[in-house]
Each structure stands twice: as C-alpha cells, then as structure tokens.
Amino acid sequence: MNGAVSESPRPRASPRRPALQIAGVWKAYGPTQALRDLSLALRPGRVSALLGSNGSGKSTLIRILAGVEQADRGWLEIAGERYSADSVSPDVARAAGLHVVHQERSIFPQLCVAENLAIGTGFATGRGGRIRWGELNRRAAEVLERFEIAARPEQQLASLSPSGQTMVAIARALQHQEGARDGILILDEPTASLPVQEVDRLLAALRRYAAAGQTILFVTHRLPEVRAIADDVMVLRDGRLVGELTGPDLDEGEMVDLLVGTSTVQRAAAPAARAAAAPFLAVDHAAGGSARDVTMTAAPGEVVGLAGLLGSGRSSVLKLLCGAVPLRAGRITLDGRAFAPRHPSDAIRAGIAYIPEDRIGDAAFPAMDVTENASALVLSDYWRNGRLRHSEERRDARDVMGSFDVRAPSETAPFGALSGGNQQKLVLARSLRRGPKLLLLDEPTQGVDVGARAQLHGIIRDAVAAGAAAVIVSSDFDELEALCDRVVVLVGGAVGSELSGAELTAERVHRAAFAAGAGP
Amino acid sequence: MSTMTPAPVEAAPETRRGRSARSQLGALAEPYALVALLGVVVVFFSLWPETSETYPTVANIQAVVGNQSVLGIAALAALVPLAVGQFDLSVGAVLGLSSVFSASVMASGAPIPVAVLVGIGIGVAAGLVNGAIVTVLKVNSIIATLGTATVIAGIVTLKTEGGSIIEGIPLSLTDFGSGNTFGVPRTALVLAGVALAAYYVLEHTPFGRYLLSVGTNARAAHLVGLKVDRLLLASFVIAGGLAGAAGVLQVARGGGANPGVGESFTLPALAAAFLSAAAIKPGRYNVGGTLVAIFFLAALNSGLNLAGAEAYVSDWVNGVALIAGIALASALGRGRAAWARDEGPSEEERSQ
C-alpha cells in the first residue's frame, strides 16, 4: 500500500482498536499554526462529531484526511496500517478507506443517478468503450437498495430531494467497500444547506449505516444534530483537541463551553454610551436571500455587528441593503425615508458603501490598475469638458494610496499585484471616496495579515467617527467584540439576540450563535 | 478567519519582486513586440529579391493601406463587444447586409447620404437584435451572433438572389473609394477617423472605462453600480453601427456590393481585435493594438502574395493569427489575473 510508513501486522480483532488514529499532527500555513500536535481516535462503528469554530483547524484536518493537503508532521493509523501524515495523497487516502464527502461539490445534478454513482469509479463498458447501460443500471440499483435510497438508477439526480442527493454522494463513496467495517465515512457539514425535514432524513440514514457498523466522522456547526446522532464528540480549538464527550446524553452547554473556551481577554471598558442618535438605518422585519425576519437599526457614529453561523442570513442582510438581493418582505428606511433599492446604483446614490466578502470575485477589477480600481465609484468626477482627466485621476489615486497606506509598486500596477491586505484597503478606500453615510462590510479583514487588519479597523473607526454608520458581518467574534458597539446575532435568518455594553464579548456572541443553533 | 489563511501574505511580496525583476525587460518590450514584428515583415519583403521590386512601392503601400480600411473598421466593430467580454461573430454578415442594402438604395437613385444612413441604420438594428438576444434572452454571445449571422446571410441571398449589385453606384462614391488625398487613400482617412473616435470613447470617456470594467469583472461592475446589461447592449449596437459603416465603405471601395463578401471579413476582423490585446496595451483589447494587428497581417499577406504564394496561404496566416491572438490574450490576461487568484479567499475561508 502506498505511503505506508511501517508494515504492521494485520489488525487484531479487538473491538477497542480505533478505526482511525491521528497522532501528533502539525500543520502551518505560513506563519499561522492551524494544527498543533493534534491527536484523536475514532472508534469503529460509531458516529463521531467533530466540532470547532472558525479557525479551530477542523477544515484543515478534513483536508489532510482527504489527502488534499499534507500535514507538516505526525501520522495516521487506519485499520492497523500506519501512514506518515505528510505524505497522504488523495489516492492514498481513498485506498486506505477514508471517504470524504463534501456537500454540493461532488455531484452532477444533470446526470442520472447511475451515472453519478459510476463517475470517478468507472463505468461498465463493452466493446469499443461503449457504456453498458444495462449493467450500469443493474449495479446502481444494487447500490441504491444497499443504501436504502428511494431512487431509480435512470432518474436525473436533480429530481431527488437534497438529502437524497447527499445520500447518493455517500453511496458513491462507500459502494466499493467490502464490508461496512473497512472504511471511514467523513462528512463535511453535510447538513449546512439542507432544510430541516431533509436533515432528519439524512441523519436517519446515517444512523442506519452506523448501526450496520460504518464508522462515521461528522463535521457540523449544529449542536442539536450532534445530540441527535453522535456517539462521541470531539471539540477542536486553536488547532488542538480540547475536549471529548461520549454519549448518550450529550450536553449542549458542555459542548459550547468547550467550543468557546474561557475567555481570558476581558473587554476593555465599554465605550461610553453614545448620545442616542436617531438611527440612520432601520430594517423592519426584512426578508430576502437567506434572511427571513430581520429587524435592526444603525445610527451615525455606531458600529453594529452581525454575527451568526454559516447560512444564518448575515450576508443576505447586507446584500438586501446594497441592492444586490431583492427585498421579499418587510421594510427598510434610510434617514426616515422608505428605501427599496432595485439595483446597487440606487444604494450607492443613497450613500451606502458595500464591501463584499469575495474581494476578487465581487469587488475588484484584477486586470485593471490601481488607479482604475480606486476611481471605479467616482469616475464621473474626472469627466470634464469631454475628456477624462487621467493625470488628475492618477494623482488622486496616489493620494489614496498615501492616506490609506495602500502599498503598491505604483498607481499603475495591476490590482492583482497587491497583497490581500492592500487590496482590501484599496477596496475600502475606494468606497470612502464617496463619503458614504452607511458602510456595509462583509468579512472586512478576512485573509489579511495582522498589520493590515489593524489598519482596516482604524479606517473603519475613522469613518464612523466622522459620522457614518457601519454594519459589519464577521465570523471572527473577537473582531466583533473589538470593533462593535452592538452585535445582532442571527439564527436561521432571524434575529436571535442582541448584545451590547458589558454583555458584548466574543464568548457571549459565540454562545448566542451556537446556543440557538437549533437550525431553521 | 485570518488565522487560517493558506496564502502566506508576508512571503508573497518577495516572490513578486523576484518575478517582476526577471520579467522587467519583457514587460517593457511587450507592448511593442507586434510593432517590431510588423517592421521585420516590411524590411524582409523590401529586401528579399523576390519582392524587393514590387513590395516597397508607393502603389503597393497605397493598395495595402486602402484595402485594409474596410477590414480595419470591421475589426474595431468586433473590438467593442470584446471589451465587455462578448463575441460578435456577425460583424462580417452585418457588413455584407449593409453593403447590399446601401448599394441597392443608391442603384434606385437615392442620394449618397441617404444610402450611408441606410447602411449604418441597418447595422445599428442588427446590433440591437444581437444585444437583446444576449441581455434579455441570456443567450451566449457566440451562439447569438452566429445565429444572427446565419439569418442575415439568408436575408442577403433573398435580397440579391446571389447576384452582385454593380449598376447604378454613383461615380462620386467609387471615386472616393479608390482615390487618394495627398497620396493617402481616402478610405484610410475614414479608418483613421473611426479609429480616433473609438480610441476616444474607449480610453477617454467614463463610458469606455465602464465597458472595460464589465469586461474585466461583470459582478464587481454590477456592485459598483454599473448597469451591466445596458452596457452590453450598447456595445453590440456600436459594433453593428461600425459594421454598417464598413459595409458602405466596402461599396465605395469595391464599386458595388457582392453578396458573398461579408463573411470573409469576420475571421480576420476578430483575429485583429484579439491580437490587439498583445500590443500597445498588453492584456487589454485596444484600438492601437487592433490597427497594428491589421497592418501586420496585411503586410505579411501582401508580401506573400507578391512573392507568388497561393491564395490559401493567407487563409493559413489569418487562421493562425486568430489562434495566436487568443492564446496570447489569455496568457497575458492570466499573468495579470494570477496575482489576484493567489490572494483570493481560499476554500477554507469560504467554507467557514
């Protein structure tokens, strides 16, 4: 077997032997230590839930187990076979019986169920390489029956329910296992995008597979699901295993304690209560995108945080406000006047600046230069007497680079040549050139280094001190604690709670996001 | 989130400096590589004994420059939709349609200005149809314009029944098409005017910048408040209008309208528009680069022609140029976008 470090004797038939043992795994990304001496074990035939917040290292671990990334140090042991964790490739992982299923990434909605099952593992072919449909469908029918999936082989995958599609993806991963005990099924947030009744169907199916002896590692954010399905719970924080719980009777409170840890950083004195300025922005029972019922306000000089788990609707709120997603229900007022943007240009005219989460995909013109990016929102200012004032435009771009510390070789360097932090400073500075009254920031410091992050916070604070209101979405709850006057916590598209003053700590935000994590 | 960034931000600038230092010379030479190549072609055919008698003569230069004017305007027509990231494969067909209808209007005795307006108007109408198919019906522009080009070819056949229109074209127009002013072909003056206008619109107006922004990143353009669909529609209308104008010029140059002439322009026009991203302003479709590309291909084809090469050789040249242009444009574009992708949000961040 490839990648095996040492040949161990065949596994003894001991039920206590772990199905998967991970020991001393380290992984760094540049200066960031994602996993620190991580060790854990999965017991065979059980469902283990892997919990962890953003940056806890759980995605890194899944990637290492999938062979997509290699660890710096450490080893894995699967069914008695030992592998060096720095040499596991996707092929080795598969051969060793690690089956990682990513929701939505590995299915082909346009193809039929039988094709989905055969893709990647081989089609039954006859002479001349033609697909033997009869054989293919017969095999698929067998697999569907074995995994108790209510579907026909020739049915188009898109016509299945979302949970059915996930089950097909699982069945594809597991179909060639000799017996249920051989492999480990790793599910990376399989329920993140499923409606609630679909979640139940999927969990029921997983319970059946586990009862048949399948070892399952289940990654999720939703604690009630963990309680419903997991036998064992492992919690990661800062790249380490910080706690293990064993069911039955898993306690959600205990899980949250482990997830959050005890906050050692005390909140600096709460900012002096601001004079209650009339809110500039008022959102009243708004719905649109994944937001179902959101009511919130933001006043000039105030920074309001929006927290929540993936899919809680936090980004949707910003998109509603900036005109990128239509308002389905409810009402928005700006400065006391009804506001219903139909296009981002309406929001920009109304004094709203939106900084999207995906800098490259949604905000930047990577092939254009720094100057052109810097003036994207104010270009008409340079259009005088029938021509664009290019030299003035470049001079102002240099000024922007100077005052916001955007480091680039020159103002004519392509935007793409800037580092992430400088790109983000430029995108933010670009919006501020219009003197916005409301800043909407989606993950403003994601993927930037510590120095740039502090600078970005400074830029936001300055804009707010100058009288703007700001709404910030961040999955980094420490950032929300540091930056915000109030934090609105969204749960399943609606406001779960609101924290301010001494209550506003990363830990409380964290608990609020999870505690109500009962799903939609 | 920032604690899990796989892209090591600190390390990146250093590799960047190293890379850019190595390619500094290349970056300086890049805008003028095609210009230099044009020079090499001209010098070669001027010195090569086979063609040194005929190639560097005033008559040949006038012929080459004059003949390229129609193609030049067609290439500028193709350039505008390319700037917004769309293909217009109907420029040749629209050119042919315009030349047939404007010639037939003139043949029936209408004054020249009316015929010019008919030609341009037909082009604008065709552009509106293309633009509407792309923006309203959301059909991929390659498919949309391939479809309209085919329909237009049918209209031309219906109108002409396969025959050329050569009778009744006013002499003043054909004189314009074949005459020179101070030794410069008059059609070339028209091309110069159109090119100047296109350069002005693309480089010196907010509208032009908006077109290029949409071509670079349509999602970001939408979020900075641009009306993307309107800009797409406008680009097809401009392309149609320019192709229509080229059609009228073709009547002047050729002294009539040949129903089969239009399609032969599409491929070289697109090839030149694509090659423009490899010259003058590398990585960006631009007017100067388009002209350089046109005359590079013309100088090469003319030389081969005078050397006695078979006609099919110029087909090879145009075909290879189209592919080379696209390959170069995407390679240069990749070089620029690669920086961006290196720094983009990782899977990790998005899945969190």
Question: What can be said about this structure in brief?
Answer:
Chain A has 520 residues and is an alpha/beta fold. Chain A is built from 17 helices and 23 strands. Chain A is globular, with a radius of gyration of 26 Å.
Order of strands, main sheet of chain A, comes to: 7-8-9-4-10-11
Shape of chain B: globular
How would you characterize the largest beta sheet of chain A? 6 strands, mixed
Extended strand count of chain B: 2
Structural class of chain B: mainly alpha
Put simply, the count of helices of chain B is: 16
Note the run of SSEs of chain B as H and E: HHHHHHHHEEHHHHHHHH
| Low-confidence runs of at least 5 consecutive residues of chain B | 1-22, 337-352
- Largest interface, C-beta within 8 A: A-B, 68 and 53 residues
Largest sheet of chain B: 2 strands, antiparallel
Tell me the distance between the termini of chain A: 45 Å
Q: How many distinct beta strands of chain A?
A: 23
Describe the protein:
- The complex is a heterodimer of chains A (520) and B (352).
- With 520 residues, chain A is α/β, with parallel strands linked by helices.
- Chain A has helices spanning 58-66, 90-95, 113-118, 133-146, 162-174, 196-211, 223-229, 252-260, 314-321, 344-349, 359-363, 370-374, 390-403, 420-432, 450-465, 477-483, 506-515; strands spanning 4-6, 20-29, 32-42, 47-52, 73-78, 81-84, 98-102, 184-188, 215-219, 232-237, 240-246, 281-288, 291-298, 303-307, 329-334, 337-338, 352-355, 383-384, 387-388, 438-442, 469-473, 486-491, 494-500.
- In chain A, the strands form five sheets. A six-stranded mixed sheet of chain A has the order 7-8-9-4-10-11, sandwiched between helices. A six-stranded mixed sheet of chain A has the order 17-20-21-14-22-23, with helices on both faces.
- In chain A, helix 5 (162-174) runs parallel beside helix 6 (196-211) and helix 14 (420-432) packs parallel to helix 15 (450-465).
- Chain A is globular.
- The model of chain B is unreliable at 1-22 and 337-352 (pLDDT under 50).
- Chain B has a two-stranded antiparallel sheet.
- By secondary structure, chain B is mainly alpha-helical.
- In chain B, helix 6 (112-135) packs antiparallel against helix 12 and helix 9 crosses helix 10.
- The longest helix of chain B has 32 residues, at 312-343.
- In chain B, 74% of the residues lie in helices and 1% in strands.
- Chain B contains 16 helices and two strands.
- Chain B has helices at residues 12-22, 24-29, 33-47, 58-83, 91-107, 112-135, 141-160, 171-178, 186-204, 206-216, 218-223, 228-254, 263-275, 287-306, 312-343, 347-351, and strands spanning 180-181, 184-185.
- The chains are: A alpha/beta (520), B mainly alpha (352).
- Chains A and B meet through helix 1, helix 10, helix 11, strand 19 and helix 14 of A and helix 1, helix 9, helix 10, helix 11 and helix 15 of B.
